[in-house]
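Posting this for the archive.
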Amino acid sequence: MTGITRDSVIKLASEELNIKIIEQNIRRSEIYMADELFLTGTAAHVTAVGSLDNREIGNGM
């Protein structure tokens, strides 16, 4: 889903940090195996996700 904060994070990551950005659909099981996960939103800005469906993401930090 598009948004101002999301677009800003993508631009910063790709242009300033040289991080390759890939947008694709993924399965929920792939999220469970992630080292890190975050959400973006106007009110939340960028928020780390420590767990999803009672499963720890990465080290849960």
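The CA atoms of residues 32 and 55 lie 7 Å apart. The chain is about 30% helix and 20% strand.
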